[in-house]
Amino acid sequence: MWGDHGSEILLGRNLGALVFAVRFMDGVIRTKDVAFKIQARKGRKVAVASSPLARGFDLLGAMVRVYSRGFHFSPQLRLLFDCFATHEIRRCLRRNRNLPFDKDRIEAEVFEEFIAFLREEGARIGIVSQMNDWENASNGNEKSVLNYIGALFSRNSSIVPVEMQLFYKKSCVDELRLHEVAEMVAKEEADDMACLYRREDTVDALPEALRQHDVTEVIGDRDRLFRNMRSKRSIFGNMVGYVWRLDCSYTGYYLRVVFLFDGSLAAAGGALGEHIGQYWVDGITDGRGQFRNMSSTSRKFSGDADLISKINHDDAEKREALTRFLCRLARRDRYVCVQPLSGFKRFGTGRAQMVAPAVPQGKARTKTLKKSE
């Protein structure tokens, strides 16, 4: 979300465990590995790690804290949460794999039973087929990016990318009230965990108080922006394409767009971003909008500083960096996305050469790809 002074505010659950949760579930579903081998030492059971699945014992708490009632998860993560909610693994402290769980088992054995339960339930619901279908949809987005960027560079000697976040003034939080927002987020997370642990009687309904605008508002403004670009030549006359994603923060939906301009004709990316942002505010949203220019000289292009400048056709390193970033944008909802968005696309690209420039795009490309100096 954003503060009322334009600063970005990061609140909510840490999704760093999401990556490990996906890897853990892939190991559960696609291998027959066991996490531990149980040995007897001095009359006591001792668990010895036998595969990478063993790390799941220590990280299971972090993995399940990714769960949210407001998110829609990939099939393997839904399986993880559904099985966790009904299995006695919930009652393990998970501080010591050798800790007795009951008179017959240590906690590592309960964890092994949990893995077996995941596999049984996965086989019952056809989890492999579900995962393949889900991943094929995400891979389709990534493939479209690769084809799109390749086509643009085949027609242009250089490209200037301009990354923008386009949102609304009412999405911005009064920074003096930030503690109240943090408390609401923490309460929602606690309620999510209560649901997962089957304590629904202590849970409030999923709050919508901070969702300041409906997704249809963003989609309407997005469509208006894309429709009007052809006639707004003072800003978009040298644009050759764009890649967009519909994203969501705690305060509502917003647009992330990377506009792609002919590098032989376009101004600096930061200046272009300011013009685009003001057009979003004044020309598209009638003053309702707000923006962040991620391509200004004071910001990095989502962590890749080189991408705020022109990218030449034969510069392999910068082209790869741009492609990597756009592919990350394409697969941002590969494992988790905000629901519901039924019937709405979350990601897309413009048509190559969507706005035909008044003059040809640079010199003919005769150089081979090279690495940046």
What is the compact description of this entry?
The protein is an alpha+beta fold. The protein is built from ten helices and twelve strands.
Q: How are the secondary structure elements laid out?
A:
Elements: E1 2-3, H1 16-30, E2 36-41, E3 44-49, H2 55-64, E4 71-73, H3 75-86, H4 107-125, H5 127-155, E5 158-168, E6 172-173, H6 178-196, H7 215-228, H8 233-236, E7 239-249, E8 252-262, H9 269-284, E9 289-293, E10 311-312, H10 316-330, E11 336-338, E12 347-349
Parallel strand pairs: 1-6
Antiparallel strand pairs: 2-3, 4-11, 5-8, 5-9, 5-10, 7-8, 7-12
Pick out its properties.
alpha+beta; 2 domains; single chain; six-stranded antiparallel beta sheet; 373 residues; two-stranded parallel ribbon; disordered N terminus
Any overview of this molecule?
This protein is of the alpha+beta class and 373 residues long. It has two domains: 2-125, no CATH class; 135-174 and 208-349. 41% of the residues lie in helices and 17% in strands. The chain has helices spanning 16-30, 55-64, 75-86, 107-125, 127-155, 178-196, 215-228, 233-236, 269-284, 316-330; strands spanning 2-3, 36-41, 44-49, 71-73, 158-168, 172-173, 239-249, 252-262, 289-293, 311-312, 336-338, 347-349. Strand 2 (36-41) and strand 3 form a beta hairpin. It is elongated and about 80 Å long. Residues 1-5 and 355-360 have low confidence and may be disordered.
